[in-house]
Amino acid sequence: MSREADIVVIGAGPAGYAAAIRSAQLGHAVICIDKSIDRNGQPTLGGTCLNWGCIPSKALLDVSYTFTRMTEFQKMGISVEDHQIDISKMLTYKNSIVDKLTSGIDVLFKGNEVTFLPGTGQLGSGREVTYTSHDGSQETITANHVILAPGSTPIDIPAARIDHELIVDSTDALEFEEVPKRLGVIGAGIVGLELGSVWNRFGSEVVILEAFEDFLPMADRRAAREALKIFKKQGLDVRLGARVVSSTVEDGVVKVAYQLKGEDLVLECDKLIVAVGRRPYTEDLLSQECEVNIDERGFLFVNDLCLTDAPDVYAVGDVVRGPMLAHKGMEEGVMVAERIAGHKPIVNYETVPSVIYTHPEIAWVGQSEDELKANGEKFNSGMFSYSANGRAMAAHETEGFVKIIADAKTDRIRGVHILGAQASELIAQGVIAMEFGATAEDLALTMFAHPSLSESVHEAALSVGGNAIHTVNRRKKK
Ligand code: FAD
Ligand code: NAD
């Protein structure tokens, strides 16, 4: 069998579904192929993000944070006697949110007349796609444009092979049916910290083995330093500079052999999460005949506009260079859809926000002080602590700070770094400011509602010029 379409999208994660919906809105006949199967054995939309990533992990983070806050409620005058967590009910709650959102994509596809084909898509020569349904039947689809959005998959390391029971990946770690007494994690990256936090909040003794000596090297140095102290206080035992050698399972216990400061050590745990990064997922995607090239790290090679080496074949999301983040993929998907329709948008990779949803949250956009120093660029920075913010005090959320970095000459904002409650929300102010080319003074001259956490953004901007009101200014010129 064969058919035709204006656009075929392979992959219905955030990058692919955004590309498909936007293309259909712009008047194209769109087919979207996705192979994911949900926990009930049914085809599902939304990719990693909605099914096994952003959304379920945030459901568990929000439930577990609410659970830990119960103990703090006492300080605020609220008595919560003997609170318990029912893990099975929590998983049902998490699944209900996943189901609502994944079926929401189905509604959006139907409403925008995107044809969804459950199964595998493979790019052939030109813009020919072979679609193989889950029952094995095949058809050829010829399109004017193809958008590849197959996403990424967890990296597996020989020193800790995933068995999906005791040695698990991030997907399995969202499904633990009981709280592991001792939880080992390999990798103090975003997944390790977020999922380590979830289970630590329910009582797991969590040890995180991290190969690097530096904690969160991509974050602001002060934010990383303060966060590490706070996480340690919360019970996350982060061991930096730990080289994992091997892992074995004996009598239901995982034994992880590792080296730290020249010493041979063994970590015993009941579950081990391997969270050492993700790699582009390109299995079954490309035929021998297709002209798409792969770079040395396994990513599909694309230019700034997400065009591959094959004419009219684009690639977006985790499978191409840049941060593996849902919002970056969505923006790329929309850009490609609009470019195909003849519009001229670009993705501004300078303003991709990053958030780690621990508590406190860590969020940043733009450059760090270290990056600017390394480039020999001069800057001024301003900081404001949550502990001096009235709303943060009222909410018993005084850990952390906002830092704004501005060019020494032009005062243009080059970076915003936040450690603190609701950093994921506050960082949007930095993104908007940078997108509009704002100076620190622009933010300083803006009125913010009082009392609000956002006032910390205002005060940090004021402090760039040494003009903060609610803290003693220590303006540093670099
Ligand atoms: P995916 O979401 O991976 O979707 C790709 C889809 O394509 C999948 O459904 C796959 O089955 C399908 N596919 C692949 N190959 C084929 C083929 N040949 N034929 C048909 N279908 C195919 N990012 C954030 O921004 N914020 C977060 O809070 C966040 N939290 C996360 C938490 C966890 C635990 C994890 C693992 C990831 C998290 N991420 C987060 C990352 C985020 O999930 C990814 O960046 C995002 O899902 C990438 O979108 P994508 O569309 O490129 O790929
Ligand atoms: P990561 O790259 O964030 O962190 C992996 C960590 O593992 C690094 O610190 C690395 O040094 C360490 N590591 C690598 N090999 C190791 C080894 N052999 N022994 C010990 N440590 C080792 O990767 P991740 O945490 O798996 O997350 C994957 C990606 O998913 C992230 O980079 C991010 O793009 C995305 N994600 C985003 C969010 C979010 O936006 N909040 C949440 C989860 C995942």
Secondary structure: elements and pairs:
Elements: E1 2-10, H1 14-25, E2 30-34, H2 47-52, H3 54-73, H4 87-112, E3 114-123, E4 128-133, E5 138-148, E6 152-154, E7 167-168, E8 182-186, H5 190-201, E9 205-210, H6 221-234, E10 236-240, E11 242-250, E12 253-260, E13 263-269, E14 271-274, E15 278-280, E16 313-315, H7 326-340, E17 354-356, E18 361-366, H8 369-374, E19 379-385, H9 390-394, E20 400-407, E21 413-420, H10 423-435, H11 440-444, H12 455-464, E22 476-477
Parallel strand pairs: 1-2, 1-5, 2-3, 5-16, 7-14, 8-9, 8-14, 9-10
Antiparallel strand pairs: 3-4, 4-5, 6-15, 11-12, 12-13, 17-18, 18-21, 19-20, 19-22, 20-21
Bound molecules: flavin-adenine dinucleotide and nicotinamide-adenine-dinucleotide.
Keywords summarizing the entry:
FAD/NAD(P)-binding domain; alpha/beta; binds nicotinamide-adenine-dinucleotide; 30% helix; Enolase-like, domain 1; 5-stranded mixed barrel; 3 domains; 6-stranded antiparallel beta sheet
